[in-house]
Amino acid sequence: MSAPKQRERLVVIGGDAAGMSAASQARRMRASDEMEIIAFERGGFTSFSACGIPYWVGGTVDEMDRLVARSPEEHRTRGIDVRTRTEVTDVDVAGGRVRSRDLDSGAEAWTGYDRLVIATGARPLRPPLPGIDAPGVHGVQTLDDGKALLDTLRGARGRRAVVVGAGYIGLEMAEAMLHRGYEVTVVNAGRAPMSTLDPDMGRLVHDAMTGMGITVVNGTAATAILTGADGRARAVVTDDAEYPADVVILGIGVRPETALAGEAGLPLGEHGGLLTDLSMRVRGHENIWAGGDCVEVLDLVSGSLRHVALGTHANKQGQIIGTNIGGGYATFPGVVGTAVSKVCDLEVARTGLREKDALAAGRQYVTATIESTSRAGYYPGAGQMTVKMIAERRTGRLLGVQIIGREGAAKRVDVAAVALTAGLTVEQMVNLDLGYAPPFSPVWDPVLVAARKAFRAVQAGTRA
Amino acid sequence: MSAPKQRERLVVIGGDAAGMSAASQARRMRASDEMEIIAFERGGFTSFSACGIPYWVGGTVDEMDRLVARSPEEHRTRGIDVRTRTEVTDVDVAGGRVRSRDLDSGAEAWTGYDRLVIATGARPLRPPLPGIDAPGVHGVQTLDDGKALLDTLRGARGRRAVVVGAGYIGLEMAEAMLHRGYEVTVVNAGRAPMSTLDPDMGRLVHDAMTGMGITVVNGTAATAILTGADGRARAVVTDDAEYPADVVILGIGVRPETALAGEAGLPLGEHGGLLTDLSMRVRGHENIWAGGDCVEVLDLVSGSLRHVALGTHANKQGQIIGTNIGGGYATFPGVVGTAVSKVCDLEVARTGLREKDALAAGRQYVTATIESTSRAGYYPGAGQMTVKMIAERRTGRLLGVQIIGREGAAKRVDVAAVALTAGLTVEQMVNLDLGYAPPFSPVWDPVLVAARKAFRAVQAGTRA
After folding, report:
1. Can you tell me the distance from the alpha carbon of B43 to that of A147, in angstroms, rounded to the nearest whole number?
2. Per residue in B193-237, pLDDT tens?
3. Contact: A342, B440; criterion CB under 8 Å
4. Which residue among A421, A430, A440 sits closest to B433, beta carbon to beta carbon?
5. Alpha carbon of B270 to those of B117, B123, B309: distances in Å?
6. Residues A243, A264: one domain?
7. Whether residue A70 sits in one domain with residue A164
8. pTM for the whole structure
């Protein structure tokens, strides 16, 4: 006589992409009488697109609700007990329970789990500068951040915005503020915008942004935010200048939000993210999984662990976690470091290693940079693009690609992402059978032109 | 004492993409005192984009000259002796010489060669129908064809165009004639437009074309072209109807132009194309190469030979031939069958095997069809697309992808083209690190959504 089947309880910490993908997938695989699913979310929303916030702030997306893929109510009707505005304050690994606090009532409670998913996301970097907490200084990580920023814009006296940081968020917020009719200054600590690119490619982004009327100040960090008599931010100060601001936006980057996990004794990596195996199970913990912006992932090109905060990975990892918890089997093999973005009509894409990553990984390399167009040169709307390709010396194996250009540039990086995943050489890439027709590509696709030039560099380097 | 180095002579037959790419690459590698290069071209132009003709006829490209990448004069200044309006009428393989005829003077001459490149291209199918040679019936293969068609349009009395054939040329010419303000009827022998797609996907093209105001008649072949009292085409006749036409455009397909090669005893395949090895050397002939629309190529997915007339392959093969003739080493590994096209704002793409190709190759398969969008659903301009994926049963290896949709659909097929080249499974594709940002993709790229569904079908089929 077998024992009656116990109803398991799955607890999820974090109600955004990774957490709710995991919960939803587990629910698809396991009925409510087999598994109870409770999800704790500190904020008021679930399953929203943080990546969409700049477009909502800029007015390209008209309503906040459009960024919400699935509300708490929708999750509840699907059998997931979502508890919003409820923060998990402790994870008791030995006891198999979490302590939560209702942010409105202050009430605390312990909830036991059979399986736990940690999907606490990332937190924006917020350097301890004088004035950083003043009204008028905004991050853009959550929907509440977006609301607060829009409130500031509605009440702003002037039209000067200073964006601190020139990564993806910085670029996208620069565009958003231009759309809102602001004069935009970007204060950037790096040598050029987009430190995820090599500086020579970042320089192209700089020049294009300048051409859009954005003031880009490189090589200088914000040291303070000055406030006015009303206590509101009025300028961003750097070592050698002061930039008047009616609104300040922080886009300096993010770090894994793993304070809770760290206090619970779960293993963290050198970037501060949770360490998991390929099934997204936290190392050394049979019944705890983690995914999304709070984990480190394997970089398939360098072989080392990285932190990459991107909704697309969070969704995939969540689904993998849910599949494994539901009794299936799935793994997340790793990333190659693909990212795309845009600032107005300039598209920016990268995948794989930069030169400095290759050096750090001990890989000798050659580079090739070419210019081409998104369509046949004679076809209207053909956009210019620059493609930089990095290949390993001698073996010719593709190491990385960066693309800067106009319409049709960014998603071409996907060809390189697949090639990196498959371990292709640039010689193999030269003859890739990519789609050709005049409205879509020159007869040699720009990626192939770059591969051809990189292959010649490999040949020259092999002789050397 | 070594013999003085002999100056070699390279003869090229055909002055378009493959021939002139071969000549140009050979010239880059071998100086004029080492190698004389003579290129014979029957027409008046060299290195032109036949793929661009529909856009010139439709008025999207304003001048014919824009389709010419390099004129005969430009080639001559680069040390290639181009002889236009000169047709090669015989290849004497044993004697190592070709006979040519000046089309203006009628003068004939023999020219010896050390190395020969055959790049005679393809000829459009022109069924022997009554009236097919009447004025007002046009192919769109050469720039002269385009000129003649534009002359007809300038003199046309009415605004009714009938396009015979619904492949790439048929679609592109339907668009061109719509742009010119014509009422367009497409007469198509197949069950649905685009026989390079599965019929279920072709049906989507049909519906979209109908929505554009194009009359698409499927399952019926043209049997005759009626002419008026002036001798000009006035209607296209099928088994059961008659379609009035002020202009008739033929887009039925092409076959390798290999009459000359066949008469010379060179090896032809079952599709009528020249047979070469991977270095593009004609099989069994040490000093003869062939490339472009006149050869058969290896299909890397099915393992069989195909005929694929596409400028992108012609250019690559020409460059490979030139490299090998110049003393280097390069190979053309084969194709996976990628093609992209559009009719107005509908994009059409395919790569790999259709269902019937898989059946013919003895491959059991599963299919998955999904609908998604080109951008995040909330981002303006997100275009709908349908992605069909075919994967091998049990192994899950990708066999083919077809995509129909609006802006941003077609070039997504490149991801599948690389995956096919690398032999990836659909499971491997689910976690591909493709570029994600709201203006460029939903958080799950449509190709990944299709891969995920195909993987589930593989799993279900594996259990069966």
Report:
1. 66
2. 999 999 999 999 999 999 999 999 999 999 999 999 999 999 999
3. yes
4. A421
5. 21, 16, 15
6. no
7. no
8. 0.96
